[in-house]
């Protein structure tokens, strides 16, 4: 059974729906260098994070300019964890954790096994995605789940699977990749940046469903 993060939440109604559906974590996107309908400003991000109840992890998803910018964002928004997209080093991750006291989750491309190893000791978890050249995720494209499984087997850090997940494929993705958690954004939307509440509930349910291996 994989834990579930619902990402790209932009309004309180969708946030509440994700929590009621049983999400273990929510993601709020702010300060990214790519054009996305899921980005919100710092004030909105802080307001959404403040509504997250205990025992649900509020995650800031961001592409800061550098480690100091990341620290500033955490202090302004006050999430429980920060998901970093971009070329951050193990030293950057250690600095951000030391300055903020929160969990740090770098995102890597599923092909970048060397970077996964380099960041393993510093990270609290590693998100494996189909990323763009600039390190941004959110492509909505699934990747080789077996490759993610191979990465996870070599790491100390928990692995979060992202990229092209939806209610109709998440159970199979969990069976193949065996991740600690799965992450979804566009796969549970009715329009860009707005969640389908039925799809949210189905995704969470299917992520925890055991699939039988075909014989």
What does this structure look like?
The protein has 215 residues and is of the alpha/beta class. The chain has one domain (3-207): TIM Barrel (Alpha-Beta Barrel). Helix content is 36%, strand content 20%. The protein has 8 helices and 10 strands. It has helices spanning 12-21, 42-50, 67-77, 90-100, 113-119, 145-154, 170-177, 197-207, and strands at residues 3-6, 25-29, 57-62, 81-84, 103-109, 126-129, 159-162, 181-184, 189-191, 194-195. An 8-stranded parallel β-barrel has the order 1-2-3-4-5-6-7-8, surrounded by 8 helices. Strands 9-10 form a two-stranded antiparallel sheet. α2 (42-50) links the parallel β2 and β3 (57-62). α1 (12-21) packs parallel to α8 (197-207) and α3 runs parallel beside α4. The chain is globular. The protein starts with a strand and ends in an 8-residue tail after the last helix.
- From the 3D structure, determine the CATH topology: TIM Barrel
Helix content range: 25-40%
SS-based class: alpha/beta
Q: Give the biggest sheet.
A: 8 strands, parallel, barrel
Instruction: Enumerate the strands of the largest sheet in spatial order, edge to edge or round the barrel.
Output: 1-2-3-4-5-6-7-8
Uncertain spans? none
Overall CATH class: Alpha Beta
Shape: globular
Name the CATH superfamily assignment: Aldolase class I
Query: Cα-atom Rg, whole angstroms?
Result: 16 Å
Q: Give the amount of beta strand, in percent.
A: 15-25%
How many β-strands, per DSSP?
A: 10
Please give the domain count.
1
Distance between the termini: 21 Å
How do the SSEs run, as a string of H and E? EHEHEHEHEHEHEHEEEH
Helix count from the secondary structure assignment = 8
How confident overall, as mean pLDDT? 93
How does CATH name the architecture?
Alpha-Beta Barrel
